[in-house]
Amino acid sequence: xxxxxxxxxxxxxxxxxxxxxxxxxxxxxxxxxxxxxxxxxxxxxxxxxxxxxxxxxxxxxxxxxxxxxxxxxxxxxxxxxxxxxxxxxxxxxxxxxxxxxxxxxxxxxxxxxxxxxxxxxxxxxxxxxxxxxxxxxxxxxxxxxxxxxxxxxxxxxxxxxxxxxxxxxxxxxxxxxxxxxxxxxxxxxxxxxxxxxxxxxxxxxxxxxxxxxxxxxxxxxxxxxxxxxxxxxxxxxxxxxxxxxxxxxxxxxxxxxxxxxxxxxxxxxxxxxxxxxxxxxxxxxxxxxxxxxxxxxxxxxxxxxxxxxxxxxxxxxxxxxxxxxxxxxxxxxxxxxxxxxxxxxxxxxxxxxxxxxxxxxxxxxxxxxxxxxxxxxxxxxxxxxxxxxxxx
Length: 392
Prior knowledge:
The protein is mostly beta strands.
């Protein structure tokens, strides 16, 4: 490069920024973001527009500091073959819950993108005021999920931390090929509707190495999901890892989940461990080819549970036998302690009894003595050590 002489410092700064942008690197400071001052949403969206329109792989960099972001929706498709968000700082949501983010249901959202990755960073949803509103029984909005991917593919999230989300922390909806690694999710155990990771109508989703403490399901698997791999997850407090609820009618004529593996996970003081839940409705569907393996329970209220009469707070329930068929579910090497006498509960549908359940290597105790199991309309086999004794 030729030597630069007789140029002002401002010109040099602009020249270097232009070179950086040309190389596919976009620092949000260049687009006007200032840590600790003002709404940075506009700057983030300008950086996205530049990266999205680039013909080469791009990186959007968020340096250290707290960046207030009212709401940001990053839409594709993009010209760039891949876009990486490299985050050293913290994105902070508005503390109030009546603004635009609260009304939309999404705070940071990606839609119709391909090849987007997020590395590092922290999302602070500042949900405490909304939780208090809900806990007081007042009329409150549902809130906004902190991070949502919709109708996207080839997504990777590594090393992200999400705290105090107003609603769900991470949502994967209508996506393909998603990898979540080394994710940390933290919220109060009393925070309502703050699922850690929710997957729905998506395929080929991996969650590996996650530490989740929240007020609802640590991981929830909604209808239309298939080929999920969940491994090395620590959950608690929270409501456990749940498949469902299914059968409520969430825009699908048939609500189904298949080919899900959950292994090498632990639950501490949670409401549930591994759970499958369906509403007692006439909406058809199935849950099949599910494996729960190498699971440690510590003082869990319902370590192993299938609930086909799911009805939170006994309100607004259809009152029918569930039309969801549950088949080929394996529970392998599950050990630890139950906080209630019934450690294994299969409450299945009279119309569609559970079938193909397999228990192997179960050792769950209650207050240093043998726990109990309970079965309704459940069929399967048990082998090896089974404690409590099988009721299949």
